[in-house]
Each structure stands twice: as structure tokens, then as C-alpha cells.
Amino acid sequence: MKKPFQFYFKREGWPITDLVAYCPGFKKICPKCKSDRICIFFKPGFIGKETSKWCEYMDEGNFDLCDDYKIILTKNYNPNWICKNCYNGGVIV
Prior knowledge:
The structure is a single chain. 20% of the residues lie in helices and 25% in strands. It starts with a strand and ends with a strand. It has 2 helices and 6 strands; from the N terminus they run βββαβαββ. By secondary structure, the protein is an alpha+beta fold. It has one domain (16-92). The protein has a 6-stranded antiparallel β-sheet with strand order 1-2-3-5-6-4.
């Protein structure tokens, strides 16, 4: 099994941000365009102890990508995702 990794987004001349991206080591499919170019990230202010819990779920493949607006509004403390192909996004459930 591939080891997951985390990385921080950094731009030239800017400090490292609180935005953390995560790769569970396998691909998920965008519900809109069926692309596998998905970026999963924890938004700034995400509680560190919650990060490890979500990383465990993602390492096991025990999650889905959700882009339903009504569900997104109720899942404010879930990790986010964005498709690099069609720019569709949502939350991990």
C-alpha cells in the first residue's frame, strides 16, 4: 500500500499557508465529469486532531466525494475536494 502524504501550498514570496492538501494514495472519481484529477484539502482552521481521524478514513477508502449543495452546507467541518479538470468541488462524506 502506498503511503499517504501531506503538503502545504506555497507561492513565491508568500509564507506557507494553513491550507493542507492530502493524498490517500488511490484515485476517486469526480461526480460531475468522471475525471480522476481530484485534490483533497483541509481548509485553514481545520482542527488538527480531526485531521488524523479523516486521514484514517481516507487511507481505508472509507469516504465519498459529495457535490450536493444542501449536504455541503451541513458538513462545514469535513475536508474539501476540488476537481482539477472541471473545477467542481464539495466535501468528503
